[in-house]
Amino acid sequence: MNRTWRLIALLVVVAAASVLPSVSGRADVRQYVICIDPGHPSEVGSGTQGRHITEIEAAWQVAQRLKTELQARGMRVVLTKKKEHEFVRNRRRAEIANQNHADYMVRLHCDSDAGTGIASYAPDQQGSIDGVTGPSKGVIKASRKMGAEFHRTMVKSLDGRLKDRGFLPDTSTAVGRKHHALIGSIFSKSPVVLVEMCVLTNPKDEQFIRDPKNQTLLAKAMADGVQAALATNQKAEPAPNVSP
Fold it and tell me: CA of 110: how far to CAs of 2, 38, 47, 125, 141, in Å?
């Protein structure tokens, strides 16, 4: 009798484990894969220069904290760079996400502007460069849907520590206006969002992002955003990589 009850208990445990929810709140066949893209240097330059920290430094430092936070939540993380100052073209950055079948690509940047605060961008139309037109209509739709939830959740988690500059289309940027979408979006086969984490030319914003505690806070807020974005696609399989 004891052996029988032990067998029954084991079967119950196995059955329960098979339906444990993933980070999205449901059972999945595998881990979610997130690609983090610490911005610059690339073919468009070395990025914004603050008085005490560069965009390359800020993006790399926050990327490491975001990687740790996402891994702690059970996700697999891929970075587009192995070293802080590694030169990677924007097309190659998107290809790294594509090759890893990323469920979401999060691109980290800092802005240069007269304003202050944090903003997120996603493609709203197809663009063209080097004879390639993209992203697909499916990627655009997923990026807009997931990006809106990502930004809303991230801003809520930040609780006013950075001004909300909004969730905007790629065409709001200089590169996006030129090509009708950001280069990283054009080549992406995964939903993608670009975060301008602060206005680095604003002394207050620069002071904020230099502080390791604030970098951790920002990483946690973005991880909350990623988790919420993934949940918006919970009826779909992981790694959308949707086609036109």
Answer: 63, 10, 8, 23, 25
